[in-house]
Design brief:
The chain has 131 residues and is α+β, with helices and mostly antiparallel strands. It has one domain: Alpha-Beta Plaits. Helices cover 24% and strands 33% of the residues. The strands form two sheets. It has a four-stranded antiparallel beta sheet with strand order 2-5-1-6. A two-stranded antiparallel sheet has the order 3-4. The longest helix is centred in the first third of the chain and has 20 residues. The chain is flat. The chain starts with a strand and ends in a 19-residue tail after the last strand.
Amino acid sequence: MAKFMVLLTDDPCYWAQFGPEEMQGVIKQYVAWGMKMHAAKRIKVGHKLADEGGKRMTMAKGKLKVSDGPFAESHEVVGGFYLLEADSYDHCVKLLADHPHLAHGHRIDVRAVDAPPRGRGRGKKPAKRKA
């Protein structure tokens, strides 16, 4: 079965409109969806990302540049992710069709995870190096 990285992207200012009780209702929607996917054995991992902090890293002319992020002026940030198992892209899209993130008008990006080459990355230990 194929694995898919699912990125939940939103405008961080959107969530400020909800009071504490309303936000608890939204959280319940996300939890219910996640429980449904866990019961179907589709979620391998999934987490909400922290609202504050983060780092953006780039390399220019051999020098590493690290800056704070996500940025307050950003209109979209990745707010969470899942690693899902599905038969195909179409199947993954079908699994995500009723995700509450979409009902709130936000974007979900889906990317297939490349399978490692045969004989590598499948729980095998790397070959020992000669000293």
